[in-house]
Structure formats: structure tokens, C-alpha cells
Amino acid sequence: MLPSRGCCGWRGACGGWHWHAVSFSVAGPHAEAFLAYSQSSDPASPHAADQAERFSDKRWIALPFTDAQINADPGFSERQIAQ
């Protein structure tokens, strides 16, 4: 697929591109990820290059897998939706 122009420049600059690295062991899966683009498209924002800097510094984000890892996330919340 060749790059093409999109809503904010080249497609992917405002889309859902992310990278994952996953390994499997007897202890279970271990996954890390980061966005392939940064959190802001505003060059004046401190978040304009944050994800590129994470990648350069090899600071991938660990992804929770087990119930314990998910529940340990301070941002975790759970909702039950009735039909």
C-alpha cells in the first residue's frame, strides 16, 4: 500500500498506528507497545515528539495481560452494561 494524502497530511499521521512486541513463555505472554505517531500534531506541544522519543529511548509501554495486572492499573474501571 502506497502512502496517500488523508485528513491531516499523510494517512497514518492521524490514524490508529501502533507497534506491538509480544513474547510467549511458560509464565504467560509479555507485551509492550507504543504509538507510531506522537500524542499531538501541534509542533509547539510538549507531546509533539513524545512517542518518537519513547521509541528512541527504548521505553516501550508494558501492556497488562493477567487479571492482576489489569486490576493493578490505577486508571482501571469496570462497568456492567445491561441489555
TrEMBL record:
The keyword rRNA-binding does not apply. One of its GO terms (biological process) is antibiotic biosynthetic process. GO terms for molecular function: hydrolase activity. Keywords: Hydrolase. Its EC number is 3.5.1.-. Transmembrane segments: none annotated. This is Acyl-homoserine lactone acylase PvdQ, quorum-quenching. The keyword Transmembrane helix does not apply.
